[in-house]
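Title: Comparing notes on inverse folding

I've been comparing how different people in this forum approach sequence design from structure. To keep things fair, I'm posting one structure and asking everyone to reply with a full sequence. Here's the target:
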């Protein structure tokens, strides 16, 4: 039995970080945490309550009213995010939330609050968390850090197909431009921008399957847990 590690998966929007994180957690018997869903839930609260991001008092007051929890859906076996006792797992994936979430996630006071929650969730190790600053800020000591990316057009096409399958009438161009603008904001904001540092292992999944990316990541876990066996 290996001692548990924390795995940080950061990278660009819509490149399947969540899918890999979930599968990796399943294989290892670890807990998967989608940190983006926390930023999305806060963004949803701001939308529903007409909170203006520039209004510091309003934002501080709103954050004190927000309670986030991950609750297991007994049907699917997956954890869903609850905002003030209500599941918002589906709602937070809609385009109106996607359109504002990067701006909400750029607010330092929001980041500070959520990073504290995330660090608590990972304190016992055995967590796979995906986001933008997991390896740099949330778990700088994570034993394995993966930076995921893929060509923007390929990411947009995948996301577009998912949205259409759920009945959305969005265009491919709208998905591509939302994705590019999120990448731009996430990578250039002042507070904890998405950054590829030397301690990440890079995973570009433009031309590999989900199965292949899982095998690559599992191999990395193996290497970290059995450093003596590397040829
Ligand atoms: O991974 P996602 O698309 O669900 O993330 C939603 C937004 O939240 C995205 O614009 C980046 C931001 N985010 C962040 O700034 N830090 C994280 N750890 C996770 C997400």
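Reply #1:
Here's my take.
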């Amino acid at each position: 039995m290996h001692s548990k590690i924390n795995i940080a998966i950061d990278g660009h929007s819509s490149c399947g970080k969540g899918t890999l994180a979930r599968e990796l957690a399943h294989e290892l018997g670890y807990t998967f945490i989608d940190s983006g869903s926390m930023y999305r839930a806060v963004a949803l609260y701001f939308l529903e309550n007409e909170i203006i991001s520039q209004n510091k008092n309003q934002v501080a007051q709103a954050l004190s009213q927000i309670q986030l929890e991950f609750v297991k859906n007994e049907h699917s076996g997956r954890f869903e995010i609850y905002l003030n006792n209500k599941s918002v797992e589906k709602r937070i994936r809609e385009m109106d939330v996607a359109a504002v979430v990067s701006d909400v996630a750029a607010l330092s006071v929001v980041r500070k609050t959520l990073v504290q929650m995330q660090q608590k969730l990972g304190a016992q190790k055995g967590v796979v968390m995906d986001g933008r600053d997991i390896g740099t800020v949330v778990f700088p000591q994570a034993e394995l850090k993966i930076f995921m990316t893929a060509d923007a057009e390929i990411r947009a096409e995948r996301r577009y197909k998912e949205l259409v399958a759920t009945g959305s009438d969005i265009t491919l161009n709208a998905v591509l431009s939302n994705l590019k603008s999120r990448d731009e904001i996430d990578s250039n904001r002042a507070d904890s921008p998405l950054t590829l540092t030397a301690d990440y292992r890079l995973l570009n999944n433009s031309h590999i399957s989900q199965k292949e990316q899982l095998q690559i990541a599992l191999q990395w876990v193996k290497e970290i847990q059995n450093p003596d066996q590397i040829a």
